[in-house]
Amino acid sequence: MNRTRSTLKGKRRKVKWFRVTMFFLVILIAGGAIYGYSVYHNVAKAVSKMTSPLSREVSAKRETKVEFNNSDPISILMVGVDERKGDSGRTDSMIVVTINPKKKSTKLLSIPRDTRTLLVNNNGKSTKKRVTKINAAYAYGGIEETIDTVENFLNIPIDYYIKVNMESFKDIVDAVGGIDVNNKYAFELDGVSLETGKQHLNGIEALEYARMRHQDPLGDFGRQQRQREVISKIVAKGKSFSTLTKYDDILNALEKNIKTNLTLEDMIGIQSTYKPAAEKMDSIQMDGEGTTIDGIWYYLVDDETRQEISDQLREHLGLAKETVESLDSYSY
After folding, report:
1. How far apart are CA 153 and CA 161, in angstroms?
2. pLDDT for 47-94, tens place per residue?
3. Which residues of the chain carry a pLDDT beneath 70?
4. Of the N and C termini of the chain, which has fewer Cβ atoms inside 10 Å?
5. Are 298 and 2 contacting, i.e. CB atoms less than 8 angstroms apart?
6. Spatial CB neighbours of 159, under 8 Å, sequence gap ≥ 6
7. Taking CA 88 as the corner, what is the angle to CA 188 and CA 306, rounded to the nearest 5 degrees?
């Protein structure tokens, strides 16, 4: 069933979840939990297990590496990956974050998982041109191909990434003692049934709450909202004093489920230098329309919309406007 542009179109809006996308793991592991040497040592150890550098040092779309000390604008790609045993996995959610501390602002863009685009791999491992859903980039080339594909789609550099294993996301929820939500739509998914209304969710329930989309009138956009809600609730629990006594459980859950090219020094640097960006938050809606091609449902974003979004993000990153590569030849 096709979705029209009018039903999916949304307005840019101020959002209250800076710390959600500005790294809930930073808050959990580099914020209030660092109150003594032994804790800091454990945090550093956990972060070292999470750190997974990219094969490149600098994005091909940048001339030099960003410097925190210069308050350079930065970009982050946050992805939730559905990785299960025997499956290479696909990205379940994708959020691009651009942060400009001098302008004291942050922009956030959620990319629908079914967005049709050209998959790009710049490390030489794949030369085949694939045009398919953007979430398939991870299945073919992992986080590197995912980043290269997003960079090509939006024509912006991605400086950092944070990858969360959605399948084991429940461990993080359980580590903070569960979360409270107000469920809008009753649903059943993978053996989990949730009624409408306020309720306390454990890890498995929170995972399905964040995954559900087919029973949500907003589809993937509704799921994106719930994913942000779940993360924000984890952040709120993670900042509370009661969870400090559980920091070992939290660190254990984080180090098992998160990979990033951020070091602990980077995380602390972002906390101290980029906090002013919390003063102004804008969420960008990616308008498009649904269609079926060769029996597969896609979300199509036209070149004009991509150009508008690219211009916004490049300006926010302090970069000159450039023309995005046309995807018209790949539309059908």
Report:
1. 16
2. 889 999 999 989 999 989 998 888 999 999 989 887 666 666 678 788
3. 1-39, 83-89, 124-128, 235-247, 329-332
4. N
5. no
6. 59, 62, 65, 66, 74, 75, 76
7. 80
Backbone φ and ψ of 277, nearest 5°: -65, -15
Strand extents, DSSP E, the chain: 74-82, 90-100, 105-110, 116-119, 130-133, 160-165, 179-183, 187-189, 192-194, 197-201, 258-260, 281-284, 289-293, 296-300
Contact 117, 134 (CB under 8 A): yes
Q: Measured between alpha carbons, how far is 92 from 76 in angstroms, rounded to an integer?
A: 17
Per-residue H/E/C for 88-123:
CCEEEEEEEEEEECCCCEEEEEECCCCEEEEECCCC
Residue 192: burial class (beta carbons within 10 Å; 0-12, 13-18, 19+): middle
Which pair of tokens denotes residue 173?
A: 């929820």
Looking at residue 244, its pLDDT comes to 54
Nearest to 169 by CA among 17, 25, 16, 22: 25
